[in-house]
Specification:
Blueprint: E1 13-19, E2 22-29, E3 32-38, H1 41-54, E4 61-63
Parallel strand pairs: 1-4
Antiparallel strand pairs: 1-2, 2-3
């Protein structure tokens, strides 16, 4: 039997992504991701900042 490749859980983080006019905030906590959708950038960034503070991160990751 072949050894199963063990993967490390994704690190905690918050990222903001824009796609086709919608803004997505992806929050990862303990390897589990949750995505929230926003129509406006300001709302998405505000939500992301709050989540970042909640989970104790110093930086916001931005991907476009």
């Amino acid at each position: 039997m072949a050894d199963a490749k063990k993967t490390d859980p994704e690190p905690d983080g918050v990222e903001v992504v824009e796609n086709m006019g919608e803004w997505f905030v992806r929050v990862v906590i303990n390897g589990k991701a949750q995505v929230s959708t926003f129509e406006g950038e300001a709302y998405a960034r505000s939500f992301a900042d709050g989540q970042r503070m909640r989970i104790g991160l110093n930086k916001l990751c931005k991907h476009i």
